[in-house]
Write a structure and sequence with these properties.
With 204 residues, the protein is mainly α. It has helices at residues 16-32, 37-44, 52-67, 70-82, 93-98, 104-115, 131-143, 152-162, 167-176, 182-203. Pfam families: Nitrate_red_del.
């Protein structure tokens, strides 16, 4: 997505909104491509905490990052999400919402992105309904200085329409896949985080 920035890791005192934006950014990076050695090292050295369901999910992912080397994680990504022919697991919202790729949910998403002034960058090969792209949009909506975009109403609408409606099913598929290790942990973190987000939006 255009208007994106490089993913940054902030200290805990930066505030809840920065933490939300950073986690969405991290999920976007990890679902889009296998982690670089630098990103993997950052994950391995991250502080862990078992407090709460989200803290436990984070700890489990960090622990898995410490158990596997970069090549093993890269191979797992290729096996699950690339493969030969049709991937074993598709990462696109249209598939989960309609049963097919490039269907009406993608057209609705593109219309909503246009209203937000966002569009896919030329170098991005994946369609806008890829889980990584949607997480990046959420990161942008939280971090944007545009008050018309960086408000809870806009975030909630985009989240409920384009993420909450299918991402849990994707995460469940990854979690139970017999070859998923790092990405099972990532999927559990994603599922837990999105559940926390949904609860928070419902309380507003």
């Amino acid at each position: 997505m255009e208007k994106s920035t490089q993913i940054k890791f902030e200290t805990p005192d930066q505030g809840e909104e920065t933490a939300r934006a950073d986690l969405y950014g991290l999920l976007a990076a990890l679902f889009y491509t296998p982690p670089s050695p630098e990103l993997l090292q950052t994950l391995r050295s991250s502080a862990v905490t078992g407090e709460g369901v989200l803290g436990q999910a984070w700890t489990d992912m960090v622990n898995m990052a410490n158990q596997l080397d970069a090549q093993t994680i890269s191979d797992e990504y290729a096996q699950l999400f690339i493969g030969t022919g049709k991937p074993e697991i598709l990462l696109y919202g249209s598939y989960y919402l309609s049963g097919f790729l490039m269907e009406k949910p993608l057209a609705v998403l593109r219309s909503d992105l246009q209203q937000l002034g966002l569009q896919r960058a030329d170098q991005v090969m994946e369609t806008e309904d890829h889980i990584a792209s949607l997480c990046e949009v959420m990161r942008y909506l939280i971090a944007s200085e545009d008050i018309l975009q960086a408000n809870l109403g806009t975030q909630k609408q985009f989240f409920s329409t384009h993420l909450q409606s299918w991402a849990g099913d994707l995460c469940g598929t990854i979690i139970v896949h017999p070859q998923a290790r790092f990405y099972a942990a990532l999927a559990q973190l994603t599922k837990t985080f999105l559940e926390v987000e949904a609860q928070s939006f419902d309380m507003e």
